[in-house]
């Protein structure tokens, strides 16, 4: 039932790119290349949603991923897991264009460091919005925000990371704003 061009129309967010259509499988030890292809395709086409379907409670394993403004990562809920396959940052957002109103988004995923990944989510110089997100078992930071203008998190759980959230306003054109209703940080999680 997958389209041959790996996309289907979603009226709310532009196109949706299912990572399976780019070759990602839950059996792979590292889907970074396949997932990055989906992210890049959404970016080149002006934005869209990269979809991580829940498959029999199995994890999607990946190395470092680079995200862009106007791209959304979407899972089927917090039990839908993107697992770190390398000792690196799992997701890095970098954007020097502050005019991107849509920002970058993650919804309905668990980012799991597997005690080898160093940072779950690194945000630099952009607007970021995350909803229904769990970040767990990273050896350094759950979230590292450097110079970001706005970070909005709703229903965020950070657990078992050395530091939960680090806000660094270095080089931000204005003060960082963090909006975080329903945020819970456990064991070693400091904000």
Strand coverage percent: over 45%
Helix amount, in percent? under 10%
What is the overall pLDDT average?
78
Gross geometry? globular
β-strand number:
16
Distance between the termini: 44 Å
How many individual helices? 1
Category by helix and strand content? mainly beta
Biggest sheet features: 11 strands, mixed
Spell the H/E element sequence.
EEHEEEEEEEEEEEEEE
**Rg from Cα:** 15 Å
Q: Spans with pLDDT under 50 lasting ≥5 residues?
A: 1-13, 186-191
Describe the protein.
It is built from 1 helix and 16 strands. With 191 residues, it is mainly β. The protein is globular. The relative contact order is 0.12.
Question: What is shown here, in short?
Answer:
Helices cover 7% and strands 46% of the residues. The strands form 2 sheets. Strands 1, 2, 3, 4, 6, 7, 9, 11, 13, 15 and 16 form an 11-stranded mixed sheet that branches. It has a 5-stranded parallel sheet with strand order 5-8-10-12-14. It has one helix at residues 32-44; strands spanning 8-10, 14-18, 48-52, 60-62, 65-67, 71-75, 81-84, 89-94, 104-112, 119-124, 127-136, 141-146, 150-159, 163-168, 177-179, 183-185.
Please name the defining characteristics of this protein.
191 residues; mainly beta; 16 strands
Topology of helices and strands:
Blueprint (H helix, E strand, L loop, with lengths): L7 E3 L3 E5 L13 H13 L3 E5 L7 E3 L2 E3 L3 E5 L5 E4 L4 E6 L9 E9 L6 E6 L2 E10 L4 E6 L3 E10 L3 E6 L8 E3 L3 E3 L6
Parallel strand pairs: 2-3, 3-6, 4-7, 5-8, 6-9, 7-9, 8-10, 9-11, 10-12, 11-13, 12-14, 13-15, 13-16
Antiparallel strand pairs: 1-2
């Amino acid at each position: 039932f997958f389209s041959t061009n790996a996309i289907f129309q979603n009226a709310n967010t532009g196109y949706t790119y299912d990572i399976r259509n780019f070759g990602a499988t839950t059996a792979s030890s590292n889907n970074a290349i396949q997932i990055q292809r989906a992210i890049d395709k959404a970016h080149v086409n002006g934005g869209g949603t990269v979809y991580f379907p829940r498959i029999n409670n199995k994890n999607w394993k990946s190395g470092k991923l680079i995200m862009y403004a106007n791209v959304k990562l979407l899972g089927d809920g917090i039990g839908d897991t993107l697992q770190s396959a390398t000792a690196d940052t799992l997701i890095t957002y970098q954007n020097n264009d502050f005019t991107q109103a849509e920002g970058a988004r993650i919804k309905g995923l668990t980012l799991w460091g597997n005690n080898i990944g160093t940072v779950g989510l690194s945000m630099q110089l952009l607007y970021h919005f995350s909803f229904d997100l769990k970040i767990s078992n990273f050896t350094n930071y759950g979230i590292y925000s450097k110079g970001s203008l706005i970070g909005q998190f709703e229903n965020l759980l950070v657990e078992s990371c050395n530091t939960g959230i680090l806000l660094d306003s270095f080089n931000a054109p204005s003060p960082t704003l963090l909006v975080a209703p329903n945020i819970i940080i456990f064991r070693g999680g400091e904000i």
